Amino acid sequence: MAVYTHVSAEEMEQLLARYDAGTLVSAKGIAEGVENSNFLVDTSAGRFILTLYEKRVDAGDLPFFLSLLDHLADRGLAVPRALKDRGGVQIQEVAGRPGCLIEFLPGVSVSHPTPAQAQAAGRALGEMHAAIADFPARRANTLGPDGWAALAERCGDDLDRVAPGLAARVAEELAFLAVRWPAELPSAIVHGDLFPDNVLMLGDTVAGVIDFYFACTEIRAWDLAVTHAAWCFESDGTGFDAARGRAMVRGYDEAFGLSAEERAAFPVLARGACLRFLLTRAWDWLNTPADALVTRKDPLAFLRRLDFYASATAADLVG
Q1: pTM above 0.90, yes or no
Q2: Which of 75, 277, 283, 309 lies in the 20 to 30 Å Cα band around 296?
């Protein structure tokens, strides 16, 4: 979450007038994250989230994301639907951006997950994969292996402004993954971004899963690798917590299952997950507008994770 586009009180009131959502009481921008502009909106009828979709989210993809959320909610998963206005419309235009008024879910995002919370997140991911199995739509992963190479080329030698030698390290990893990527593993719709700040916890229970705007068709076990990399280290990419990792895999395995082939490929999948976030964070680090209300994320936190996975075995990670 972030704020790139500012919305006046008058614009907020005009939006709410389209819904049966009460009148505006207060609204404030939410600075966490880097993708879209988000606002916490309190009205006389309750609390909502207003999301404006910025440049990285293609407005043409929004019907896919919203139908995926409706599909999961219909199957009992705790995900936030985009509300429909009185005319049945979900996607609005606000301050020149496409936007949605979204259900508010209770819960908090944890910064230092316990093994029990990691297990709950793994279980929630497995339940999500089970619920998505009959979702008919597909969406290409623009931030998959082909996208990594393209983004690295766009960053070019500026990667060395992030850290000396980073451009060469990225080129080395791209070459490794081009040869080793396990493209034969089962693919499905994945969340693609299940970091702790996209999971709302109440104690050791997952109360909600949010931010599906990277959902796409990809190797299914890669989704677990992304989540593993996001949850099982300190925020700076150091201090791998093996107990969290084992708990997460156990939760996922109990809810959905992980094949022998997926287990064997897990270190490579995790390296791909780390390279993806290293590159997108580096791009944002180099290109975030100076006046954006946004918390930039450290690209090197994923270089440290990448180095860990490069020396790990499947037995170290998933047993």
Answers
A1: yes
A2: 309
